[in-house]
């Protein structure tokens, strides 16, 4: 399988905001194909340390082949596991910067067998890790009742046609299981009249967030990351849609209110016009940074 590299969003801004001590210890908690990690390494001195994590087993295989720099250590783990990992490495409270790039990676989108995209037909899956997550998109679509589906589509996708889509899914699967991304996307397209973006965008987003328990992980991930930072250390989180961004802002505000940390750049950092032209994915991206007191 060819691993598709991910173009890092806001890469220069990440380095500018996070890498304050070139000899420090940094964590890329969502390493993917290593785009942000490469930029961070360029800004680090020879005695720095970069820890790269990813929950996706395919990403880890790719990273271990690509990164042989002695300053790098690579682990197959979720960013939620950061406190446990740094505890084992005996570096808790010594971390200078942590990055969490929340979105879906280019490889996950372009690899049909992962079942993330309505643009490429494949089995309904959507799990970031097939080993760590037991419930797949197939399970949700084919076994959850109508009310459960409505709740998922509304809560995680803000889908205004949630009830009609859920009803159509329940009716369709009476005859045969909905097995592929194309089948689900076509069913949603029969109901949703959307021209600005693909009609199935919100439904696919909602199922993916639910399957991977993303919102719980974001909250726990931020909490754990802040706990291991040194005083003056920074956490950067890149979001791609309003639900993610609202959650990150809310958690950051809680830590600010407790005087545990201060928010850097109240309104976040957004891509330049030039980056938005080069990389469409960057258009909705916001980098939010918080510094531990």
What does this structure look like?
The chain is of the alpha/beta class and 293 residues long. The chain has 2 domains: 176 residues, Vaccinia Virus protein VP39 (Rossmann fold, 3-Layer(aba) Sandwich); 78 residues, DNA polymerase, domain 1, CATH 1.10.150. 43% of the residues lie in helices and 17% in strands. It has 13 helices and 7 strands. The chain has a 7-stranded mixed β-sheet with strand order 3-2-1-4-5-7-6, with helices on both faces. Strand 2, helix 3 and strand 3 form a beta-alpha-beta unit. The mean pLDDT is 94.
Terminal-residue CA separation: 45 Å
Unreliable segments of 5+ consecutive residues: none
Number of helices: 13
Q: What is the percentage of strand-forming residues?
A: 15-25%
CATH homology superfamily name of the largest domain? Vaccinia Virus protein VP39
Question: Order of SSEs, N→C?
Answer: HEHEHEHEHHHHHHHEHEHE
Please give the share of residues in helix: 40-55%
The overall pLDDT, averaged over residues, is 94
Helical/strand content category: alpha/beta
């Amino acid at each position: 399988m060819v691993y598709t590299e991910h173009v890092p969003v806001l890469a220069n801004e990440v380095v500018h905001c996070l890498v304050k001590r070139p000899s420090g210890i940094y964590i890329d908690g969502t390493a993917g194909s290593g785009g942000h990690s490469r930029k961070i390494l360029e800004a680090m001195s020879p005695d720095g340390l970069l820890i790269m994590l990813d929950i996706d087993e395919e990403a880890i295989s790719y990273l271990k082949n690509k990164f042989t720099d002695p300053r790098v250590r690579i682990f197959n783990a979720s960013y939620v596991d950061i406190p446990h990992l740094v505890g084992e490495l005996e570096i808790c409270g010594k971390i200078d910067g942590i990055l969490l790039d929340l979105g879906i990676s280019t490889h996950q989108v372009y690899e049909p067998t992962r079942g993330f995209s309505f643009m490429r037909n494949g089995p309904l899956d959507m799990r970031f890790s097939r080993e760590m997550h037991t419930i797949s998109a197939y399970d949700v679509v084919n076994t959850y009742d109508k009310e459960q589906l409505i709740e998922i589509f509304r809560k995680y996708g803000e889908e205004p046609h949630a009830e009609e889509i859920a009803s159509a899914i329940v009716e369709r699967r009476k005859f045969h299981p909905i097995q592929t991304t194309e089948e689900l996307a076509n069913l949603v397209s029969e109901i949703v009249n959307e021209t600005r973006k693909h009609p199935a965008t919100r439904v696919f987003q909602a199922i993916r967030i639910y399957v991977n328990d993303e919102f719980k992980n974001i909250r726990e991930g931020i909490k754990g990351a802040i706990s291991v930072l040194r005083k003056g250390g920074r956490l950067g989180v890149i979001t791609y849609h309003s639900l993610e961004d609202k959650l990150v802002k809310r958690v950051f505000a809680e830590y600010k209110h407790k005087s545990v940390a201060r928010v850097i750049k109240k309104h976040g950092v957004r891509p330049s016009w030039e980056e938005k032209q080069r990389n469409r994915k960057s258009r909705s991206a916001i980098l939010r940074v918080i510094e531990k007191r």
